[in-house]
Design goal:
The protein has 198 residues and is an all-alpha fold. Helices cover 75% and strands 0% of the residues.
Amino acid sequence: MDYNIWFRPFVWIDYRLAVLFLVIIPLILLIWAFVQKAESIQRLLSIYWQVSSLVAITIYLMIAQYPVSFISGLIARILIPISLWFWVDLNDEIEYQTSGSLKLIFTSWRWATTVYCILGTLAFIPFLGCAFSGNMLKTPYCRVWFEAPLLFKEYFHANSKAEFLGFLGIISLVIYVLYLSYFVLIKLGKQGRSATPQ
C-alpha cells in the first residue's frame, strides 16, 4: 500500500458513497415501491438497476486490475443520471400521479445521485489516463482505485482467482455493450424517450 497518496481517503469515501447511493438506497426504494405498488417508480428503478450493473462489472474488472475498468467506471457515472431522467413518460407519472413520502424520498435520492455522479465524473476524469498507461500497475496514482475492489474480493470471493473474476467482468462487459448498442441503434429510434414500448 502506498501511503504517500494524499487523495486515498477521498477514493475510499467515493466507494462508500457509491455503496450508499447506488446500492443500499435504491434497493430499499425498490422494495418500498413494490409494497406501495408505485409502478412508475418500480419501472424507473428497474431501468436504473440494468444501467447501474456497469458499476458491478467495473468492480470485477478492477479486481483483475484491467485498464478498461477506468473507462467503464467513468461511463457508468455518466449513464446512471441519464437513466434516472431520460424517460419522459415515467417523469410525468412520478410527478403528477405519485404522492407521499415514497415520492419525496425517491425524488431526493434521484437528485442526490445525479449530483454525486456528476461530481464523481469530474473528479474521475484525471484518472482516465490510467486506462492508457503502460505503467498502470506501477503507478500508485492508479493503483489506489484497486484497493476497495480487492478488499471486496477478500470478503466475498476469497477462494476465487482475480483472473477468473476479471474474465467474468469482461464477458459481462461485452454483453452490456452489445445490449446498450442494440438499445441506442434500434430501440431508441422506435420508442424515443418513452419507457413504454410502442
